[in-house]
Design goal:
Helices cover 19% and strands 36% of the residues. The chain has 144 residues and is α+β, with helices and mostly antiparallel strands. It has a single domain, classed as Mago nashi protein, CATH 3.30.1560. Strands 1, 2, 3, 4, 5, 6 and 7 form a 7-stranded antiparallel beta sheet that branches.
């Protein structure tokens, strides 16, 4: 049986403050498990987002993964699977703001969503998930 592994990576790169990222790995296989990483980087855009396949990430404080509650992981995946998202939002440009990226990989399939400052109206369905991720990150930052 092939494991059904899902990776969700949320990266925030502010121009004038610390970059950070969250990665969830959920394995729906025989030995179901979920892991969570939160990484904090340096100032600005000098940040390479974590991925399941990279071990040479620079400019971040590496952390060991935390076990993530299976039910919470399932809830996140179900929330993502139920969304209806427009593939391309309206044009925008910016300077001296924050770039966000949400990447979802499942085997060889995946999708990436990147936006500048405000979540585009076409992607507002992601907002509850983003709030959930920001709360996890803020808790990790407070306990660091």
């Amino acid at each position: 049986m092939v494991n059904d592994i899902i990776h969700i990576i949320y990266t925030v790169s502010p121009y004038f403050s610390q970059s950070y990222a969250l990665m969830v790995e959920y394995n729906r296989g025989k030995d179901e498990e979920a892991k969570l990483w939160v990484h904090f980087g340096n100032l600005g855009m000098d940040f390479i987002e974590p991925t399941p396949w990279r071990t040479d990430i620079r400019n971040i404080k590496k952390s060991e993964p935390d076990k993530l509650n299976i039910e919470e992981s399932k809830s996140i995946i179900m929330e993502l699977e139920s969304l209806n998202i427009s593939p391309v939002p309206e044009f925008t440009t910016g300077c001296d703001g924050t770039q966000y990226k949400l990447t979802i990989d499942r085997g060889l399939n995946g999708a990436a969503y990147r936006w500048w400052c405000d979540l585009p109206p076409e992607w507002k369905a992601f907002e509850p998930l983003i709030v959930r991720f920001e709360n996890i990150i803020n808790t990790k930052r407070a306990n660091a």
